[in-house]
Amino acid sequence: MRQIIISNDDELETLFKNIAQMPIVLCHGDVWCHNVFYSDGKITLIDWESINWGHAFDDILHLVSDMIIPYSDIFTINIESLDEYYRRFMSAYLKSFSEHADISQINYSYMWKKFITDFGYGVIGWYLSAETEKAKRRHIDELQKFHQLQEIKL
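^ that's the sequence the OP posted. Answer follows.
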């Protein structure tokens, strides 16, 4: 995992250049489960005060992260559900997005690297501040699970 983070750091300049070529869209900016409602086959978002221009997949990556961090312990990732949420949410998002725009520019590898960059570093912070070996091991397992997301086919 250390090598993944080091490689990611080494590739950040290239990552951000390539991500800059990805579609820019209007983002909600605060997508999490309490701001998303589903009723009568329609999705409604509330709380638009954080609206911004961002990359096509920023909101959905934040929603995935929200779904895997339990409210009872904000310093833990629900790694058992990570694969399912990442696959389901990303696939549904990309399918829906493709109905309205050309997604051929979206590189799945960049989405994964952005996820690692946005959320992996937080887990590293948790690891560094963990007080027990059990907690450190849990954070290592979380980072390894993040790495395995790269292999998921959307």
